[in-house]
Amino acid sequence: MNHFTPLLSAMNTPRSRPVSLNSLCLSLILLSSVMVALTDESSSLQAAEDPADMAFLKLHEKPRKRYEGITQELTARVKDTPNSASLWLRLGDARFFAGDAAGALAAYDECVKLSPERLTAFWQRGLVLHAVGQWKEGAAQFQMYHDQISQSDRENGLWQILCNAPLLGEDKALEQRIRYVKPDRQPFPLVYRMYEKEVSLDQVRKQLAATQLSKAEQDSVDFYLPLYAGFQSHMRGQTAEARQLYDEALKSTWAPEAGYGPNFMWHVGRLQRASLTPK
Question: What CATH code is carried by the domain that includes residue 87?
Answer without folding.
Answer: 1.25.40.10
